[in-house]
Amino acid sequence: MTEENLQDNRDAEETPLADVEATESAQVSEESSNCGCEQQPAAEENSAGDESQPGELSELDQALLRITELEDEVARRKADLYNLQQEYNGYVKRAKADAANQQAFGVAKVLEALMGVLDNADLARQHGDLEGPAGAVISELESTLERNFDLKRFGEVGEAFDPEVHEALMHQTSADAETEHVAHLIQPGYRHGEKILRPARVGVVSPQ
């Protein structure tokens, strides 16, 4: 074999190795390029995920916010309940007061209706016409009215004149009078507790 043939054989053997190296280098470059393209979107996704986190509440923050809302709701319910209780207490007080006033009004009306009977009985007693069983009945009636309903007769000759409890039907002056007082009891008055059902009708004497 001549030297030229040997050289040709060497060239034939070296050429495939160069091609192989070139091919492998191209494949490596392509794989590197592909890897870079595939990793970039993932990095962008992670970056996007990190940017959305500051705008969101954690589970603990959400739980604390819910607790605050519930506490506010409980406070409002307590205020509503307190107002309802106050309204109910006010209603009970007004109802009791109205019931007491109605009862007192009813008792007063009955006593006013009996005052005429008591006036006639008192006049009959003064004239000595109220004796025996009839007198005992009237006395028991007067005692019952005073004991159970606090009805009292008032008005006496000689007591100081008081326009709050006396009604002057007659008036005169006298040199002997030192103060203004009741000189004549025309009709007694009646008091139911502190309430004047009827003032005593009197004749008044005043100093000159």
TrEMBL record:
CDD domains: GrpE. InterPro entries: GrpE (IPR000740), GrpE_CC (IPR013805), GrpE_head (IPR009012). Participates actively in the response to hyperosmotic and heat shock by preventing the aggregation of stress-denatured proteins, in association with DnaK and GrpE. It is the nucleotide exchange factor for DnaK and may function as a thermosensor. Unfolded proteins bind initially to DnaJ; upon interaction with the DnaJ-bound protein, DnaK hydrolyzes its bound ATP, resulting in the formation of a stable complex. GrpE releases ADP from DnaK; ATP binding to DnaK triggers the release of the substrate protein, thus completing the reaction cycle. HAMAP family: GrpE (MF_01151). Residues 1-59 are annotated as: Disordered. Residues 60-87 form a coiled coil. Transmembrane segments: none annotated. It is found in: Cytoplasm. GO terms for molecular function: adenyl-nucleotide exchange factor activity; protein homodimerization activity; protein-folding chaperone binding; unfolded protein binding. Pfam families: GrpE (PF01025). Keywords: Chaperone, Coiled coil, Cytoplasm, Stress response. Residues 24-37 have a biased composition (Polar residues). The gene is grpE. Belongs to the GrpE family. This is Protein GrpE. One of its GO terms (cellular component) is cytoplasm. Homodimer. Gene3D superfamilies: 3.90.20.20, Head domain of nucleotide exchange factor GrpE. Signal peptide: none annotated. Its main location: cytoplasm. The keyword Amino-acid biosynthesis does not apply. GO terms for biological process: protein folding. PANTHER family: GRPE PROTEIN, GRPE PROTEIN HOMOLOG, MITOCHONDRIAL.
